[in-house]
Amino acid sequence: MSDDAKLPGKVSGIMFDLDGTLILSNRRLGSYQVIPGAVELLTALQAAGIPYLALTNGSAYPAAKQGPRLRDVGLPIPDANLFTPNSVAARVFAQRGVEQVLVLGTQGVADALSEDGIACVMPGQAGAENADAVYVAWHPDCNMDDIHAACGRVMEGAHFFTASDVPFFATQEGPAFGYSCAISGAIARVTGREPEVTGKPSAHAMGFVAEQLGVPVSEVAVVGDDPRVETEMARAGGAIGIGVTTGTTSREAWAACEEFCRPDLVIGGVAELQVLLGL
Ligand SMILES: [Mg+2]
Fold this sequence. Notes:
Layout: E1 13-16, E2 23-26, E3 31-34, H1 38-48, E4 52-55, H2 63-72, E5 82-83, H3 85-96, E6 101-104, H4 107-115, E7 120-121, E8 133-136, H5 144-155, E9 159-162, E10 168-171, E11 174-177, H6 179-191, E12 196-197, H7 203-213, E13 220-224, H8 227-237, E14 240-244, H9 251-255, E15 265-267, H10 270-276
Parallel strand pairs: 1-4, 1-13, 4-5, 6-7, 6-8, 8-9, 9-12, 13-14, 14-15
Antiparallel strand pairs: 2-3, 10-11
């Protein structure tokens, strides 16, 4: 970091991506490693009373599952600061007055929504034919009956949401297949309707983050390793986009980003953010 590096604007709250930003996950081994400086930064933010949260695009694990795993490897993040596209979806469903959601996802996805007060039903269950919204999320076991049921509801006018429409997400081991994108793409092709995305980089996700942090979106720093996920969301929403080089994007790759996903600032890692914040 050069001596004259500074934050591009007033930062009153921070959204972190998880993988590549605060931790590195090894999918093959199913393990995590904390990125240098992450523990110190979260501890300092907590002490300074600066609100922060982590929003991952993975919809498989609710905070109650993921939180303990992160704390086991030393990252001091409370469950209350951990969010997924399911958290964003629950907020949007409540805003829209959705009464029952047909969930194409694992039981964990339905459980996460239920915990946020959303009535859920799975394809084939009683009431599925009356659902007024369809939500596609992590669903490795999705079958054609599920897709058929979802198409039926969408064609009848139900709201249509997906956790993510990223076809492949970057991991340390290379690109991983995005189930939500594949499934919602099939429904879109059949019904002629495109889903609303609840995860990053959607406007729904950006609005959720600012509301949770309780600060204006222009004072939210969005810190992540993926230009098409975090910094695209920050740019579109008017937040401060900060790219890190600890994940899947190198300094050269950040410099080559097109305008719509170019970060306001690139740092070597979250340790540098602590210095910039003067903590
Ligand atoms: Mg990431």
